[in-house]
Amino acid sequence: MHIFLARARLAAAILLPAWLLITLLLKLWRPVIAGRPEWQVAAIIVPQMIAGMVFVIIPITQGILVRLAARRQGLKND
């Protein structure tokens, strides 16, 4: 049960930054993707979204959650 809660916490913490990233990418690429079929839009946006998630959003979010957990653990031990 503990691993489920940890994964749910990570997913919830990633939700807002992921939404912001996809919104930003769609706005930045709007002139290029206007009028293109959905598969072409996906071909442009998805690789950038994956790279942003893997190399930026997930590591930063995990670091923040680890620090919060360590702080909480330190408070319990005091």
Kindly give the count of domains.
Answer: 1
SSE-based structural type:
mainly alpha
State which percent range the strand residues make up.
under 5%
Low-confidence stretches: none
The SSE string, one letter per element, is HHH
Mean pLDDT across the residues is 92
Number of helices: 3
Total strands: 0
What is the makeup of the main sheet?
A: none
Radius of gyration, in Å, reads: 17 Å
The rough form would be described as: elongated
Distance between the termini: 26 Å
**How much helix is in the residues?**
over 70%
Structure description:
- There is one protein chain.
- The protein has 78 residues and is mostly helical.
- Helix content is 91%, strand content 0%.
- The protein has one domain (2-77).
- Helix 1 crosses helix 3.
